[in-house]
Amino acid sequence: GAGSDDDDQQDGMDEATRQALSDIDECQKELDELNEKASKEILQVETKYNKLRKPYYDKRAAVIEKIPNFWVNAIVNHPQISMLVDEEEEDCLHFLKKLEVEEFENVENGFRVKFIFDENPFFDNAELIKEFQLGPNTEPKSTSTLIKWKENMDLSKKQPQIIDARRKRGLEQKTFFSWFSDNKDPAADDIAEVIKDDLWPNPLQYYLTPDMEDGDDEALEE
Amino acid sequence: GAGSDDDDQQDGMDEATRQALSDIDECQKELDELNEKASKEILQVETKYNKLRKPYYDKRAAVIEKIPNFWVNAIVNHPQISMLVDEEEEDCLHFLKKLEVEEFENVENGFRVKFIFDENPFFDNAELIKEFQLGPNTEPKSTSTLIKWKENMDLSKKQPQIIDARRKRGLEQKTFFSWFSDNKDPAADDIAEVIKDDLWPNPLQYYLTPDMEDGDDEALEE
Ligand SMILES: [Ca+2]
Ligand SMILES: [Ca+2]
Ligand SMILES: [Mg+2]
Ligand SMILES: [Mg+2]
């Protein structure tokens, strides 16, 4: 370490070095202030553009509602997200009417993903929300709406069999609803990131372009 | 995939759906334009603050030159970078007079790390530069100054023995100069990222705080 080369560094430091270190510290303080100002300005730009984007996202949402199964098709065509969606889950996602990503006013503080459903035979909730709180002075934290499954429709109870069947077929063992309800490692929730940064900004490309590597063998079954 | 649920999606698509998809496409184009404008404004902020930071970095550099062994001590105290520095390399880094990180005018396009040396018994170069070109329309690429080792001082020739000795001691096998000259995977050069985003913005904290886990056993040897 440093000590072995400059034995006077900690205690017997000479006056010139002490002054130099103090001068460096001054520079660092000025740099820190500039960094903080830069972050604030960048945040302002992001907030401004989130507001400018909003009417287009709203208009898009209204149009998407006219297209049957828009979101479920975008999801099952998405290379990463499709890997999660088990067969019965796909049936359930046909009732997904609307998907929304809302960043917090201060985008660094987090975001939520909202899944808005039509009346459906699987659960009573109209909205399922997974929210990520990433604020600067807290540990990352996520929370999910508790799903009120209808009688005998609880897909999460079928998880052990599903996982077993998927393991045998060599598929990803996490499923869509197990991802939704899993809040163990919010800082490493890749699926939420992919939804926020890829599916949400442009779902049309996935809706239009079936994924050729999605492991969906329905075509073979039919 | 989408085809199995909406068999008319590709060809026999009804007029309302066709119109809806075209409306979504319009929204996406407006969103793309806004995203591009936002990126440009953020880049302008970053460029502005790089210019504002420059005089403080220049002043800091002038002061650092007055402190013997500032950079080698900051480096050997840094938890990640220190892992690379082999004993003979540390001797060589005592001649490191100046370290600089320069981002390109468009910060997204890349950066270079400059190591500026005093006359030294190891090599003839006054500057060793590793440069990362990360521009948007090219594959990431890095290049390094070819080191002109003096006779019998070529530390890279000692790599096989060094690597072998380090493996036996359970240490990281990459060394400082092998990292410097390695341009095989520029997009995953964690060390360059750590130098740019951690050591360079605030070396003082590392200079002042010896790393307790740096595996440097000089104290034991003395
Ligand atoms: Ca869209
Ligand atoms: Ca400093
Ligand atoms: Mg030493
Ligand atoms: Mg289907």
TrEMBL record, chains A, B:
<comment type="similarity">
    <text>Belongs to the nucleosome assembly protein (NAP) family.</text>
</comment>
<feature type="compositionally biased region" description="Acidic residues">
    <location>
        <begin position="4"/>
        <end position="14"/>
    </location>
</feature>
<protein>
    <recommendedName>
        <fullName>Protein SET</fullName>
    </recommendedName>
</protein>
